[in-house]
Amino acid sequence: MSSANRGSERSADDFYQSPHWIVEAMIPRIKHLLRDVENPRIWEPCAGAGRITRVLKHFFPEAIIYASDIGDFDGIDERIDFLQCRDRSEWDLIISNPPFCLALECIQHAQSLVTERGHVLMLERLNFWGTKKREKFLFWDPPHTNISPRRASFLPSGKCDSIEYGFFEFQSTWRMNNFPKEFGETRLLPTMLCWGCGDVQYNKACAECNYGYCKDCAPEHDCKRNLFGKDALWYCYNHPERPMTDACRAKGCSLPFCAECWAEHAQGKWRACMVDDA
User: Is 268 left (phi over 0), alpha (psi -120 to 50) or beta?
Assistant: First the structure.
């Protein structure tokens, strides 16, 4: 998920990995939603390389966390098309960063697969509120919106997107039909605070894990990359099963490549960005 049509190459299957920090910022809210559930069942249906599930497994070691994706990624439990899943056991929480072009379909399908008191959390651009396609749905069941005031980066270059993001929080189909909400609440996630002390705004983001730290905490910070795994944080644009070697720095590209694709891209043999100095 990332802003499209702004002069940059769109990732295949809308494959944009969620920053760990924006997921961690939602943990207090998720704990509140699951406060009465013992050994909660959580499903991430568009897991990709596992950014969201890695954070969840750290904070919810007692939970049953299931990861699936339509693509062939290491670490997922099953390769399936989420929208084709039927007659699945009910889940307490379905959370994901779905392809923006299928976000509404994923939300509505997830609502039918959670328990009566279950919840659906989807990471979306705030302009998800727009367009006629979603108007009737959002009017009838306005979600709670958990907004990150810090703009996220979904690209290996670290460039931030052109709009803010948030976790949209929906109730189950059963509750929507029986207890429709008149309005949804809006909350700000604490993503501008230093992840070390949590008292002041961060000054600079770590180049390794992308968490933000103030000047006092930055030199000695405990890099979150070690916490959530040292496996490749980004994968090849052409081969999602391969870790990236480098990302194109040409303006309007920023695509990640494995060693083989990087060599071809740098030499102009595979020209995704169509930029002469790639």
Answer: left
